[in-house]
Amino acid sequence: MGLFTKDIKSMDDLLIHGLQDIYYAEQQILKALPKMIDKATNRDLVTGLKTHLEETKKQVERLDKAFAKLGKQPSGTKCPAIDGIIKEADETAGEIEDKAVLDAAIVANAQAIEHYEMCRYGTLIAWAEELGHDEIVRFLTTNLNEEKAANTKLNTVALRKGVNAKASSAA
């Protein structure tokens, strides 16, 4: 089912499709984060990514609950956007030899993922609110708040924990 196909006939269908999109995205992120952790060298970055990996597992559990509230089995639908962001992150990381510069790239790539998720969760919250799915709104809002916090932590690692400064002085 594409985003604007005949299979989406109602706002409820649109919400379910959106949940399937973010469910797929979270599954792909669960696969991508360990690779980012393995490549990162900055201790604060590694810690933050590990923490977010655990948060992502809980986010998937909340999405499972959202599907259950709608009487649906949790499932994902292929999301070319997250696939593209993750592919670009992998390609970029593979091209960088200097570890300090690689850490800066990992921060940027992780933030691209966070921004995608924040966009999706914000939209899903608005739709769930409109449809009166208050409990689903709570699940999604918790996920959104975690994504925002992860993005803020990434900013801190880049700016205050010296990742960008160290990368800028790399040869």
UniProtKB/TrEMBL annotation:
Residues 46-73 form a coiled coil. Gene3D superfamilies: 1.20.1260.10. Pfam families: DUF892 (PF05974). Keywords: Coiled coil. This is Ferritin-like metal-binding protein YciE.
